[in-house]
Design a protein that fits this description.
alpha/beta, 6-stranded mixed β-sheet, 4-stranded antiparallel β-sheet, globular, binds adenosine-5'-triphosphate
């Protein structure tokens, strides 16, 4: 069975058809990239999978179960985490507290035991801090635990967002332009990081990215959207040489 199966999904906003008849199947452990020009509907696909709003038509199944009607936090609990194109962090909290907060849905501590500071709650809290530090270490952020998030350099804020997503223990990770605004050396580093995290945490990854070096270097399969419709799907080599894709998106500018 596939991990994620999106079938015939459409979504309009007013008169704009953001996504039309979209299909996508992700097998366990795959790394698939979703590319296309600005406004093609890529982020809308993420918003539909993560339950930000429902599709007008079509079905989305995760491990065979329909996600219809589930609010975003239930979808996170079910094992789908995402990052955002515009980084979303608790900017005034420390790096460590950002990752601690992401454990919230995963700890058994009830509100009463938290208020009464029961021994069980203190143990849970220690476990959350230990676990948070492990995620920070995996992202190379162990030295930044006490730094306030807004004071982190941009590239590290991107890493922190990924650490937070991982702390919800996803099996599917949706990454929305993780290498946006990075220079070639940073793009390379981010690509290595994503490939390592996939192995280390047994992730399936769906990646939106405009940095072609990363898309071509990391993805096993690429889906190309234009005006809300899939215009091509294939291996990096097939996409690189697909005339439709070159005309719509890549131009002459492919590494
Ligand atoms: P980019 O690469 O610029 O992020 P994208 O491929 O992610 O683009 P989307 O953000 O999914 O594209 O947008 C697809 C279309 O749907 C655009 O025309 C956009 O303006 C529209 N759209 C997306 N979300 C909404 C919304 N919540 N309300 C109104 N229109 C929306």
């Amino acid at each position: 069975m596939s991990l994620l199966a999106v079938e015939g999904v459409s979504r309009s906003f007013g008169g704009i058809r953001a996504v039309t008849g979209f299909d996508l199947t992700l097998g366990e452990g795959e790394l698939v990239a979703l590319i296309g020009p600005n406004g093609a509907g890529k982020t809308t696909v993420f918003n539909l999978i993560s339950g930000v709003y429902p599709p007008d038509a079509g079905t989305i199944r995760f491990r065979g179960e329909s996600l219809a009607g589930l609010p975003p936090h239930r979808i996170v609990d079910g094992g789908i985490a995402r990052t955002f194109q515009n980084i979303r962090l608790f900017r005034d909290l420390t790096v460590l507290d950002n990752v601690r907060a992401a454990h919230f849905g995963r700890t058994p501590t009830s509100i009463w035991s938290a208020l009464l500071r029961t021994p069980g709650c203190r143990r849970d809290e220690r476990e959350v801090v230990d676990s948070s530090r492990r995620y920070l270490a995996a992202l190379g952020l162990d030295g930044d635990a006490e730094t306030v998030a807004r004071n982190l350099p941009y590239g590290r804020q991107r890493r922190l967002e990924i650490a937070r997503a991982l702390a919800t223990r996803p099996s599917l990770l949706l990454l929305d332009e993780p290498a946006a605004g990075m220079n070639p050396a940073e793009v390379e580093e981010m690509m290595g990081l994503i490939l390592r995290l996939r192995r280390e945490f047994a992730l399936t990854v769906l990646l939106i990215e405009h940095q072609m070096k990363m898309v071509m270097g990391a993805a096993e399969r690429i889906v190309v959207l234009e005006f809300g419709e899939t215009i091509a799907e294939g291996t990096p080599e097939e996409i690189r040489t697909n005339p439709k894709v070159v005309a719509a998106y890549l131009g002459g500018d492919v590494p």
